[in-house]
Each structure stands twice: as C-alpha cells, then as structure tokens.
Amino acid sequence: MTVPATTASANLTPLVDTTAFPEAVDGEVRAAHRLYEHLIGIWAPGVIEAAQDLGAFAALTVGPATAAQLAEVLDTDLRATRVLLDGLYAYDVVERSRGEDGQAVYTLPAELHGVFAPDGLFSLAGKIGHDRNVAWNAWRRLAENVRSGARTAEGAQQLNQISEEDYTSLVRGINFWAPPITRSLAGALRELGWTTGRSRTLLDVGCGTGIYSHLLLREFPELTARGLDAERIIPIAARQAGQLGVAERFQGEVVDFWSEDWGSGTDLALFVNIFHLQTPESARELLLKAVKGLTEDGVIAIADHIVDEDGGEGSVQNKFFRLFAASMLATGGGDAFTVHDYDQWLADAGLRRIGLLDTPMHRVLLARRS
Ligand SMILES: C[S@@+](CC[C@H](N)C(=O)[O-])C[C@H]1O[C@@H](n2cnc3c(N)ncnc32)[C@H](O)[C@@H]1O
User: From CA 216, how far away is CA 185, in angstroms rounded?
Assistant: First the structure.
C-alpha cells in the first residue's frame, strides 16, 4: 500500500470517480460533483480528529487491532468504531487487511506513530487540538470577517489574534514545516559564503519552539542562536534545544519584539511564520527593526506564505498561500503577502532581495543591505 506520509501530497484521495460519468451528463451536474468534493473536505479533519480525540491513534501505535479490539480498549460502540476506522482507511491514514477469522485488521503505519503522538518532534497533535479549539468555529466567521474586513473597533486592519494560550497548544504542531526550510536555507547560506571557520550569530524573531534555530545550529557548528518569544513559549524552546543537543548554543529570551530592543551583531535575522500575522504597516516596522541590529554583510531570511505572482500564478504554493490567507482572515487578521509587497518593505528599510527559495509549503526570501 502507498502510505500518504511518503507521497508528495496527502490529498490523493479522490472521492468522485469522474470516469464513471455517463456521456449524457451535462456540465452543471459534473460541476456540482466537483464542488461537492470540496464541500466534503470537512470530512477529513472530522474523521482524523475524532480518532485522535478518542485515543484511537495511541491505541493503534501499540499494535494493529480489529474494530472489536479497539472498541473494547477505547470503550466505544463496536459498529461506530468500525465506521470510523473505515473512514480512516478511506483517507489512507490506516491500512486494512483481513485477519485469519476474516475480520478487518487496522494498522497505523510506523511513520504516522509520531505524527499523532502529543510529544513527537513533528507531531500534528497541536495542530489537531488547535483546529478543534479554534479553527472549526473561526471558519464559521469568515463571511462576517469578509464583510467587516476583520478590523479593530477603530477601523484599522488587525494583527492575527491567536491567543498565547492557543498558540502554546499549537506550537509543536507546525514543527514539521522546518526541515525542508532549514535544509534549503542552509544550502543558500553556504552559497553566500557561510562555510566553516567563522562564528556567526542567528536571531530567531518569534522563535516558537525554536525548531528553525535548532536545526540550523546542527547545520552550522560555529553558529550561536538567540530566540525571542513570549514567557510561555521560551521554556518550550529551551527544552527542545536540549532534546536536539544544541542547548549550549541556543539562548531563549523572553522579549516582546515590538517594545524591546533586539540587540546587535546579527549575522542572520530569521522570521518564520511571522510576517503572515502582520499588517503591511507592522511588516515594514519589523524590517526596520531587523536592519538596525544586522552586521554589514548580515542576511535577513523570511520563511512564510509568500505569493510569487511572477513565478507561476497557479503554482501549488500560491494556491496554498491564498487559502492560508483565507484561514488567517477566518481567525482574525494577517495575510499571505506577495513578493512585490516584501520588495517594497525591504526597499523602505534599505534592504534588497537577494534570493527566493521554494519549499513545499513556504517560500524563503533572503535579503541584504542595498
Ligand atoms: C506563528 S508563530 C511562529 C513560531 C516559529 N517561528 C515557527 O514558525 O515555528 C509566531 C510566534 O511569534 C511569537 N510572538 C508573537 N508576538 C510576539 C511579540 N510581540 N514578541 C515576541 N514573540 C511574539 C508567538 O508567541 C509565536 O511563538
């Protein structure tokens, strides 16, 4: 069986067999089928999140099980458990085979064990929890936010409003984005002369778990990093630095990046998933602040949902970024800004773009002083 975790994209589960249309069926009916397939997109998180809620993945991590065995462990209804497991099988989340007695046996592939484990480095447990607590309700508000522009009481565009509490539960749920980004970024930095023999400093602004710092520290043994974030988040980053063996070169600092100074001597100022939370005004302000502490040949790296209108409008990334912008709007403010937007803000801060890297769900923009 092809396991989705090893394929290019998870969305390989067509639910409309378009080859089965009789010829006479007209365009409108075909279009309705296509749109219906979008509308039932909600089924995927429904089934996966219910299984996570019930502890089904934790139980299947122990070993394969029949619906009856799982229902006993989870204290759930047998028929309903079978329905749920078959739903997971339809989305290629679990494998399904026949046991000796003819009953279906469900197996969670090994590469998905960590994906559902609450403490896994690249676990989606935080993302699932966040969606249950925030996203399901937020999407209901999208129409209203489109009507009002999701503005503050004073009429200004607002920053994205995820609370510290909500972010604390989500925080590890986006770690999985990091490895392709840090690998591409490290390659680009080497091309810019980041070879061994010189110690350098990284400033990770709004570092979250610090995963980007931690992976870059592993790429560059002479690098030291400072991660700035809120009081509830920094201990998470410090703990993870220890788990990844870079605690001696990572310093987490409780700093409000708006009101406090960021220090100086920065060779690489890194912003990952920070700009999409901003307004154009606050984005410009961040770059003005970053350039102040940057060394003469320092680099600014922004990994985000950056729409490249010149680089293939219909690209997979651009599609994802535009929908990410809609999800930002559903939860408050924020946006997926374009390369052109960034170029303007860079110019205002005396910076120029020197690179744009494609990664699976982000682009990484590199800049230096003009
Ligand atoms: C979307 S997360 C990105 C975290 C990390 N860079 C990543 O991509 O995994 C945004 C981070 O910015 C932090 N943050 C937001 N406003 C901040 C502020 N004013 N000062 C310091 N950190 C802030 C949040 O606590 C959160 O960890």
Answer: 9
Q: Which helix (H) or strand (E) holds 210?
A: none
- List, for residues 255-274, the tens digit of each pLDDT value: 999 999 999 999 999 999 99
Matching fold, domains 4-114 and 164-369 = no
Q: Which of 182, 229, 278, 328 to mutate to test the pocket of ligand 1 (most atoms within 8 A of CB)?
A: 229
Ligand 1 touching residue 256 (CB < 6 A): yes
Residue nearest to atom 15 of ligand 1 (CA): 206
DSSP-assigned letters across all residues of 251-298: EEEE--TTTS---S-EEEEEEES-GGGS-HHHHHHHHHHHHHTEEEEE
Measured CA to CA, the distance from residue 91 to residue 4 in angstroms comes to 9
- Low pLDDT (below 70) residues in the chain: 1-11, 157-166, 169, 313
Task: Just give the CATH number of 164-369.
Answer: 3.40.50.150
Shortest-distance atom of ligand 1 to CA 259: 19
Residue 229 beta carbon below 6 angstroms from any ligand 1 atom? yes
The matching CATH number, chosen from 3.20.20.10, 3.40.1210.10, 1.10.10.10, 3.40.50.880, for 4-114 is 1.10.10.10
